[in-house]
Amino acid sequence: YGVVGADGELKHHVPITLPGPRLPHDMAVTEHYSILHDLPLFHDHEAMKLGRHKIDFHPELPTRLGVIPRFGRSDEIRWFDFTPCFLYHTINAWEEGDNIVMVGCRYMPAQHADGSIDAQRTAKNIAELVMTARLWRWTMNLKTGAVKEQCLDAEHNVEFPSCNAALMGRRTRYGYLSDQHATSALQWNGIRKYDLETGRSLSAWTDDVDHSWYSEPWFAAADNAQSEDHGYVIAFQFNAATKRETLDIFDARDLSTGPVAQISIPRHIPTGFHGCWVSAQRVARWNAST
Question: pTM of the full predicted structure?
Answer without folding.
Answer: 0.94
